[in-house]
Amino acid sequence: MFAVIKTGGKQYRVAAQDVITIQKLEAQPGETVTFGEVLMVTRDGSTDVGAPTIAGASVSGEVVKQTRGDKVIAFKKRRRQNSRRKRGHRQDFTVVRITDIALGA
After folding, report:
1. What is the rounded distance in angstroms from the CA atom of residue 2 to the CA atom of residue 60?
2. Strand partners, 65
3. How far apart are CA 24 and CA 12, in angstroms?
4. Domain coordinates of the chain in residue numbers?
5. How far apart are the C-alpha atoms of 96 and 26, rounded to whole Å?
6. Percentages helix, strand, coil for the chain, rounded to the nearest 5?
7. Which string of DSSP letters, residue by residue, matches 81-94?
8. DSSP class of residue 105?
9. What digits encode the pLDDT tens for the residues 9-54?
């Protein structure tokens, strides 16, 4: 059984016990989070597709840790102008372990 959820403007295919890295959520490690935007669920050979979401369905997970991604360097140089700019960025992420896929009645 797996589901497709939407969070942080992206879609993720998840199943029970999957560990996913998503955009930062305001939750501490060990807390439970619930994703209400379930777009599709597949179980026992049948597929339920929402329009746009499946009513009553939810996916719950446990926050494993808050982390940051690799540094991305944005370097700009204008030739012959003695002008250059270097900026770095690290994105914040949340690592979540999916615990349950619930299909409301």
Report:
1. 13
2. 95
3. 15
4. 2-103
5. 12
6. 0, 65, 35
7. TTEEEEEEE--EEE
8. -
9. 999 999 999 999 999 999 999 999 999 999 999 988 889 898 899 9
pTM, whole model, 2 decimals? Answer: 0.84
- Residue type for 34, please? T
Whether 53 and 37 have beta carbons less than 8 Å apart is answered as: yes
Task: Label each residue of 37-96 as H, E or C.
Answer: CEEEEEECCEEEECCCCCCCEEEEEEEEEEEECCCEEEEEEECCCCEEEEEEECCEEEEE
Q: Contact, 89 vs 54, CB < 8 A?
A: no
Closest by alpha carbon to 2, among 40, 31, 37?
40
| Tokens describing residue 62 | 């446990």
Provide the 10 A C-beta neighbour count for residue 94: 22
Question: Bridge partners of 58?
Answer: 102
CA distance 14 to 101: 9
Q: Give me 61's structure tokens.
A: 């997970």
**Amino acid symbol at 40:** M
